[in-house]
Amino acid sequence: MTAPSPLASGVAPRPPVTRFAPSPTGYLHIGGARTALFNWLYARGHGGTFLLRIEDTDRARSTEAASRAILEGLQWLGLDWDGEPISQFARGARHAEVAREMMANGSAYPCYSTPAEIEAWRAGHPHQPFLSPWRDADAASRPDAPYAIRLRAPRDGQTVVRDAVQGDVTFANAELDDMVLLRSDGTPTYMHAVVVDDHDMGVTHIIRGDDHLTNAARQMQIYQAMGWNVPLFAHIPLIHGEDGKKLSKRHGAVGLHEFAALGYPPAAMRNYLARLGWSHGDDELFSDAEALEWFDLGGIGKAPARLDFKKLEHVSGWHIGQMDDTALMAEIDSFLAATSAAPLTPIARERLVAILPALKEKARTLPQLLDQAAFALAERPLALDAKAEGALDPVSRGILTALTLALPDVRWSRDDLEAAAKAVAEAQGLGLGKVAAPLRAALAGRTSTPSVFDMMVALGRDETLARLGDQQG
């Protein structure tokens, strides 16, 4: 379901403000990357604002390295955000201020129960929300001791989360406890800090995983206690592995950095992640411009999405094939840098650019493309693998000698080179394949390669003749 249209009352719709709010406790998970993408697509596609908040209140687990990895992951994926990233920890004073304001207006109260007392109560009341004995205590009975500030949640009735994906989800208030807003040491809880931050940042749409759906009911009570507008919620199903179980390391890559290292271009990842739980008719392959035009919350399904590496490879191959050569070379350079591989030499770059049109239609990942382009990146003398050695017996080397003698005066185009090779084959009573096999081995040092004539064009006359000469000595 969607929010009521402001146009019905003659009020112009407000551009959306979305946010991505990861905890810097580890790498950027593929599920988090998809959440960020959905928020980015919705904001950018509707002329709104996309904000980034680092939820680093858990000081024991939050690390600067993880924060850096999250920012780098978003940048690699191509998701830009507005303004500077906000640190939740740095806003602790504001969180405390709101908690005390709630205590002043009666929507929260001081709780002096100790952890031991709370544990003992829970032991005697299994499966029940904790009811603080201080909820209705008068001020005169309060001791001079540290206290937590708890929300005075309604005990009767229901809290209804009107969700753009899940529909109306109802929670009985009797099942929700008076959650802690501010601990006795003055630090805010995550549940409280999230609401204050989202309100102060002007967030209008909260798009996040459906594991936060129960949190939404509790957080709504804070909005209502403060008289704040409740954002539109959209809780998206989680991502599962191909076996239908919750995604984990046993399914293979789960961190965004792992997908980058596997050589999937960012454009392909954006396309694939967008389709994990969202659809636009039967469209599977699309550009960023199309995704920005089409994406809306109504296209998000309720069922968990399944990570499918075969489909990802298909999407990746399509995007590689669609890229112009300049953009593809930039992706290759980024991939080599990210994997700490040596940068391309000027001559290797020149040869790679020449062979790209012949390779990019078939490659599904950047490593696959580079593997097929290995001949262009190699330097003489080539190391031959076992199959290449077998293809270069004395008879085959003789064929190469005949071909070498025929090549110097041939115009260096694919068609003319193929015609010259056919002429050599016919002169020796052979099929073209008998010439192509040793030629492939001599040019690449292996037998699995692109077309020999495409390789010859990419290598150029001098390098081709030099490689053929190396196998005739």
Search tags:
473 residues, mainly alpha, Rossmann fold, Glutamyl-tRNA Synthetase, domain 2, Arc Repressor Mutant, subunit A, three-stranded antiparallel sheet, 46% helix, 10% strand, disordered N terminus
Describe this structure in words.
With 473 residues, the protein is mainly α. Among the domains are: 90-236, HUPs (Rossmann fold, 3-Layer(aba) Sandwich); 249-325, Orthogonal Bundle (Glutamyl-tRNA Synthetase, domain 2); 378-470, Arc Repressor Mutant, subunit A. 46% of the residues lie in helices and 10% in strands. The chain has 19 helices and twelve strands. It has helices spanning 30-45, 64-77, 92-104, 115-124, 190-200, 213-226, 256-261, 266-274, 288-294, 309-322, 325-338, 346-359, 366-372, 374-377, 386-391, 394-406, 414-427, 432-444, 452-470; strands spanning 17-20, 49-54, 86-87, 108-111, 148-151, 158-163, 167-172, 180-182, 205-209, 232-236, 239-240, 305-306. The strands form five sheets. Strands 1-2-3 form a three-stranded parallel sheet. A three-stranded antiparallel sheet has the order 4-5-8. Helix 6 links the parallel strand 9 (205-209) and strand 10 (232-236). The longest helix has 19 residues, at 452-470. It is elongated, with a radius of gyration of 31 Å. The termini are far apart. 35% of the residues are buried. Mean pLDDT is 93; it is low at 1-11.
